[in-house]
Amino acid sequence: MGHSRIPILSALALLFVTLVYAADVTGKWRASFDSGIGPQKYTYEFKVNGTALTGKVDSGWGETEIQQGKMNGDEISFVEIIDFAGDTTRVTYRGKVSGDQIKFTRQVGEVGSEQFVANRVK
């Protein structure tokens, strides 16, 4: 009976370690990259609460609120909804945090994807 507790305790310890070592992305980040519509300059502002990620994306054409934001250790993901004259496009971000850089893959609807690096604004 005492042995059944070991897997549960191990899982809790792993969860604790994951939460303790979650990357802190709170603050502003900037990125420049080429897209299907030309060069882009973005500013991201993130706030982390546990594993929940909130904030906004400023593309220079306007700001949008981050949706479905999550942090899992050093992995970050969120959705940006872009509105072009009433036509909306879902942009999905997935990234890996390493110090003051995030290596992102950005999927723009069904159109295509870009890979780029965002840097923390100090």
Describe this structure in words.
- By secondary structure, the protein is mainly β.
- A hairpin with a 4-residue loop joins strand 3 and strand 4.
- An eight-stranded antiparallel beta barrel has the order 1-2-3-5-6-7-8-9.
- The chain contains one helix and nine strands; from the N terminus they run H-E-E-E-E-E-E-E-E-E.
- The mean pLDDT is about 85.
What's the quick description here?
This protein has 122 residues and is mostly beta strands. It has one helix at 5-20, and strands spanning 27-35, 38-49, 52-58, 63-65, 67-72, 75-84, 87-98, 101-108, 112-120.
How is the secondary structure organized here?
Blueprint: H1 5-20, E1 27-35, E2 38-49, E3 52-58, E4 63-65, E5 67-72, E6 75-84, E7 87-98, E8 101-108, E9 112-120
Antiparallel strand pairs: 1-2, 1-9, 2-3, 3-4, 3-5, 5-6, 6-7, 7-8, 8-9
Comma- or semicolon-separated keywords:
single chain; 122 residues; mainly beta; Lipocalin; eight-stranded antiparallel barrel; 13% helix; globular
What spatial order of strands do you see in the largest sheet?
A: 1-2-3-5-6-7-8-9
Overall CATH architecture:
Beta Barrel
**In angstroms, what separates the terminal alpha carbons?**
53 Å
What's the β-strand tally?
9
Q: Provide the CATH topology.
A: Lipocalin
What's the shape? globular
Mean pLDDT: 85
Q: CATH H level: which superfamily?
A: Calycin beta-barrel core domain
Radius of gyration: 17 Å
> Uncertain runs with pLDDT below 50, 5 residues or more?
none
Number of domains: 1
| Secondary structure tally, helices | 1
Q: How do the helices and strands follow one another from N- to C-terminus?
A: HEEEEEEEEE
- The CATH class assignment is Mainly Beta
